[in-house]
Structure formats: structure tokens, C-alpha cells
Specification:
The chain has helices at about 55-70, 160-165, 190-195, 350-360; strands at about 10-15, 30-40, 45-50, 80, 90-100, 100-105, 140-145, 175-185, 215-220, 220-230, 235, 255-270, 270-290, 290-300, 305-310, 315-320, 330-335, 340, 365-369. By secondary structure, it is mainly beta. The chain has a 6-stranded mixed beta sheet with strand order 1-2-3-6-5-4, covered by helices on one side. A hairpin with a 2-residue loop joins strand 5 (about 90-100) and strand 6 (about 100-105). It is elongated, with a radius of gyration of 33 Å.
Amino acid sequence: MGNKVDWIIHYVANGVKCDVCSKEENSFREYACNAHTHGMEKYNHKDFQLVLAVSQQEAMRILNTFGLWVQEGRRFSAGEYVEGIYEDCPVRLDEFEESGRKVLRVIIPDKHNVFPDDSKCEYPYTLQKLPEDKLYKMKIHLYQIIPELDRKHHMFQNWNHVKTELDGKVPAEIYEDVFSGDIDAENIEDIFRIFNVEFPKNYRGRSMSVSDVAEIVHSPNKSEFFYCDSTGFEKISFEKNKTMAQIQNHNFDSDIKIRDNVMAYFISNDGLTSISCEKFVLQRCKYSQSQLGYEIECQASNDAEPKRFHFLEKPPVVLTKCREKFPRELLYTDLGSESSVMRYGAHSVENLGIVCTWLGRHGFEFENL
């Protein structure tokens, strides 16, 4: 056998740094790689590929051996069993596509000399039958309903509920992206198994369950979405742009306070605020892309639209049926000479205490939320 090597070999595998950008590769599934030749075309022959993650030295030995055989005049074809790579077993050559070109993939049998197309073949040797795009980790997003925003109790409801109660439209606005990354999966069933048995590192969400939505990302502009049903998965349309990022301040407070015909006192950006409400609502809301907050909604009888106020933390609120105007001068201390100063800061909750004291002294009932 000659020793002139006039082709190149690319060995792309997890942990190997790129010669151009020095970025470390980490996108392959465990036990998979993409080692392949370039240059066999000068011998009018297909290039060779190896996808089982053997050592770099072993990959070079195997691919160079085939290259030297071709250089000597041997010709190989798909489906051929080839002796001489290993002493105790042949390898097989199968045709696959690699970066848009046809190559001959070197298929190595398992320790029992069983090839991947046999159901008895052991993992990870079975990976060798996968097309190129399946050798890489699957890029996914996992979306789960935000408990605090689940006002109509959609969490853990099956697909039939979505069809009958929501006309088949999944409410993306109450979902958060609890996981975004690459996982060693081949299909949607693998995703379910991983998020119930083999949780990814640093994942802190709950187990995947009914009502969750999994996104499989095929390219920057192409994704598939699957709704987790009671049994199996339903492929759906999903407006991911309406979802929230992973929430940083869960407290699982989903309580909604609704009162009719009350006067509401609370501290807003304008300080002590009092509004006569035909209907008052205190509920959870989206505060930012990754934070939940609280919303006060006040509907006055003479307003077409309710007034809404948003808070990051739960705001103290005083509610009363008393419609008598609160004397705001109670918030001030008289300094004499016609001057006064607020007893507390404009945004201090102590001002609500003054309101409560005034209501109590005048015999009016009130409620603290």
C-alpha cells in the first residue's frame, strides 16, 4: 500500500475545537460525530464518512485506509461488506448524504458483529443508520402554562378541552419558555422521556405533562409545535412570540380579588390614589418579559374603559363602601405660618394607615387586601 495521502479529513466531534474560530463543538448527540474525507473525486470515487464517535486517531486510520485503497485502484459501492479494517469482522458501506453530497458511510457492527439495521444491534451502534441531521442534538423549547395567569384553569387539560373550550387555539400568552437548548433526542417521545426521567442539567421546571407545548427547531425559520395530550401529542400552531421568557419571580399566587361598588385606596406612581369603582379587580399580570406582577383594574360607572395600574410587588389596598371624600389634609403636619409637610413620603404605605384610622374613627367598615 502506498503512503501518499492527497486528500483531507475533517473530524467534527464534541470537544473538538474548530481550526478557524477555535469554538469547541458540542452539538452532536452522545457517541456521534461526523468524520469524512474530501478529495476522492480526483479518483472518480465517492468520499467516505464515519459517524460513530471513535477516537480521532481511529477515525483517521479507518478513513485513510479506504483512501489508500482507492488510490491503489480499488472501487467500493453501497451495500458492500469490506474486510481488512478489523481482524474479526467486516465493515459495511452505505450511501448517505453529507453536506449535500453523496458519500459512502463506514458502518461498524457492534461487539456481537450485528449491524444497525438489525433490531438486535446495540446502542450506540444504531446511531450509524441515522441521516446527517439526526446525528445532532435536537434544538427545542419547552413551554408550560404559568400558574399565576391560568385564570380559566387550562393547565393539565387535554387536547379535547382546547378544541371545545378554546376553538383549537392554544393561549400562548399564558405560557412561559421553561427550557431552551439542545438535547440528545430523536423525536417527540424522546423529549417526553427526558423531561420526566433524565432532566437536562440545570433544568428546574416540573416534569413534562398534559398541556405543555414542545417546539422542535429545524432551522431559524422553521419549527414544529406539539401539544402534550393525555395520550400522545397533537401537532399545533403556536404563537411563540406571545409567550414569556423563563419567569424569575414565581410565587404561585393566582388569587383574584373582585369587589363591586367600593372605594379603593392604594399607592400608585402618583402617591395615595382613591378611585370609586363599580367593579374592582386585583389579579396577576405580565410585568415584563420575565417577571410577573399585579394589576389593579378599576371600572367606574361613567368610564367606557377601566383604569389599570401595574405593580411588580403585591400592592396593599384598602376597600370600603364609604363614599365620603377622604380629607387629604390628614396626610400633612401643620408647621404653622400656613406651611405644612407630609407626615410620610408620598409613596409610603403609612398613608394607607392614615386612611384606615380615619375610616375607623368615623365608623366605616373597610377591608385590607
